[in-house]
Design brief:
Length: about 475
């Protein structure tokens, strides 16, 4: 049995800002249940983690970490949930703050976190065969694991969840943050800056990302955020493993957030639609096609395309509900659009998990026209709630949504290739046509009902990767 230590900056249900937390909250469960590996998770202990969790934690140990000119005390607390043991790194200076990101010294905070993780390995009663670090916040942990070798023969895996965010700092911080010879600067430097993501990519034994499509895209300049040459160099060690979702949690048959439970019944889905229409003040009509957008209101999510076509699209006999917060440009635009189209568009500038689930359960279509999307979880959740996704063919969206073909009857959604507002409007119009054609809509609905993206397959791919790395250790030991 392999021992795996996940290193990450967030994890459901303790603290979440995005999809990374969902992965760290779900993948270890699937690995431990299905693949019989021992997985543990180490995280910062933020103030944001609620008292209901902190009250369940047990003090484990304390030690000092030399970092810069300070000697920091670190305490570790533990909590076991659903058979997974979690370690929380407590440090008042770096983690006792409101929120978890958005500070001027975020780079410094997570470099410190990585130092603390490597030091903690000497104090845990758990010896990992694999250290599996996630995104830039844990990239330095991979570098330090390779440089300091705190555990003999420990291998490392580094997962890119979103290559746009890299944890970049001035290069002169190397002298402040590391008591290492200058020869190690090259493995952490990129473009004249200290780069945490690059540090993980350079030092890891294996690199993964969250979909096969994204693994290919990030080797091209348009998607690589400047790192394509390094990724091409490491191509043999780069693997795309598609994310899944926790289908026990996202289950319309048992979800306590939705009013009418169903497995695949369109009749009961329409009941959810009527209740939601009443709740948000739209005209009540179970037959009217309901579209939804549930997202962060940022450029990456393709919202400039939506801006260009929304008034034209709302000339049709449709309803649209937008849920999310983000850039003021988009918040103001969609709030004003809802004022112009009061009987067709509702904009809710908030994020409410229960309301999001009610939208998934009620809507006929889910719109996700992203500029880029490493994997995307929202389209997987939509499919789980039997809502038809409309996506742009990029990253994980292309891997999970197959365009409906009315001739062959194949496909579980709608898609378009070019990042173009006219193409988005064309596919929206086509989705409306299929909705009105009973035979095609029935077939598409049947295909959606068969779509399933649990963590089982992904966990098996990761377990295979871990075992290959562990076997390479055995081979090395016998040479």
């Amino acid at each position: 049995m392999e021992n795996i230590l996940f290193v990450a900056s967030e994890c459901t249900p303790f603290v979440k800002t995005g999809g990374l937390a969902d992965v760290i909250g779900s993948l270890p469960q699937a690995l431990q249940t299905n693949e019989k590996v021992d997985v543990r998770v180490i995280l910062p202990l933020y103030d944001e983690i609620g008292e209901e969790w902190q009250n369940q934690m047990t003090y484990y140990t304390s030690f000092n970490v030399e970092f810069g000119w300070r000697n920091h005390e670190v305490s570790i607390y533990t909590l076991t949930r659903q058979s997974i043991e979690y370690y929380f790194i407590s440090n008042e200076y770096y983690f006792t703050r409101k929120g978890i990101y958005g500070y001027y010294d975020d780079g410094e905070r997570f470099v410190f976190f990585s130092h603390a993780v490597i030091e903690a390995l000497q104090h845990l009663d758990f010896v990992p065969d694999i250290l599996h670090a996630h995104d830039w916040q844990a990239g330095i942990a991979v570098a330090l694991a390779k440089i300091k070798q705190p555990i003999a023969h420990m291998k490392t895996v580094f997962t890119i969840h979103n290559i746009r965010y890299q944890g970049v700092m001035p290069l002169d911080t190397f002298a402040n943050f590391f008591q290492l010879p200058d020869e190690h600067i090259a493995g952490m430097e990129w473009g004249g800056m200290l780069n945490c993501l690059k540090s993980g990519l350079f030092h890891a034994d294996k690199i993964t990302t969250v979909s096969p499509g994204y693994a290919e895209e990030i080797k091209h300049p348009h998607y690589s955020e400047g790192l394509e040459s390094l990724l091409i160099e490491r191509d043999d060690d780069l693997v795309g493993v598609l994310n899944g979702i926790d289908i026990r949690d996202y289950n319309p048959l048992t979800d306590p957030a939705i009013p009418v439970h169903y497995r695949s019944s369109r009749v009961k889905k329409r009941e959810n639609k009527v209740l939601l229409q009443e709740k948000v003040g739209l005209p009540i009509d179970a037959d009217k096609p309901l579209y939804t957008i549930i997202t962060r209101l940022v450029e990456q999510k393709g919202l400039h395309l939506v801006q260009h076509i929304i008034h034209s699209f709302l000339e049709e006999d449709v309803q649209l509900i937008i849920l999310g917060t983000g850039d003021p440009e988009f918040e103001h635009f969609f709030a004003e659009a809802a004022r112009i189209h009061p009987n067709k568009l509702v904009t809710m500038l908030t994020f409410d998990e229960d309301l999001a689930r009610q939208l998934y359960a009620a809507a006929d279509f889910f719109i996700m026209p992203s500029q880029f999307e490493p994997c995307g979880l929202a389209q997987l959740i939509a499919l789980q709630y039997k809502t038809v996704p409309i996506v742009r063919e990029t990253g994980g969206l292309k891997d999970t949504v197959q365009a409906f073909n009315e001739v062959t009857g194949e496909g579980n959604g709608f898609s378009f290739t070019n990042y173009n507002a006219h193409d988005l409007l064309t596919v929206l119009d086509y989705s409306l046509t299929i909705y009105r054609q009973r035979e095609h809509w029935l077939k598409l609905s049947q295909n959606v009902n068969k779509s399933r993206f649990s963590w089982d397959d992904s966990a098996h791919e990761y377990a295979t990767l871990y075992r290959e790395l562990a076997e390479s250790n055995l081979t090395t030991e016998h040479v």
